[in-house]
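Q: I'm building a small set of examples for a reading group on sequence design. Run inverse folding on the following structure and report the sequence directly after it, with nothing in between.
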């Protein structure tokens, strides 16, 4: 399984998800772990309200089962409507209404 770490220094989990300069991705399993890649991000990462900075990060971790972060904001923690729709694509929609 793939896991991701939000990191500024590529050594520790020391970054807020939205502000992270890097996302380090590892493959882990019963036999151990293996570093796969580090994805770098640039631009004004600390700008609050800049939701455009999240899309590339969400794309980078789409195959990861677990994400470790020092902190995460509401926008990063709760998938926006377009992401919820993409995640649900191809799944049967069910509605459970109380009568």
């Amino acid at each position: 399984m793939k896991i991701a770490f939000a990191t500024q220094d590529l050594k520790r989990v020391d970054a807020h998800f939205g502000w992270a300069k890097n996302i380090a991705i590892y493959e882990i399993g019963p036999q151990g772990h293996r570093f796969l890649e580090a994805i770098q991000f640039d631009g004004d990462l600390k700008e609050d309200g800049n939701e455009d900075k999240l899309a590339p990060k969400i794309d980078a971790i789409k195959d990861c089962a677990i994400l470790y972060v020092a902190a995460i904001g509401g926008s990063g923690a709760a998938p926006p409507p377009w992401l919820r729709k993409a995640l649900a694509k191809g799944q049967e929609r069910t509605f459970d209404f109380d009568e």
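The chain has one domain: 2-88.
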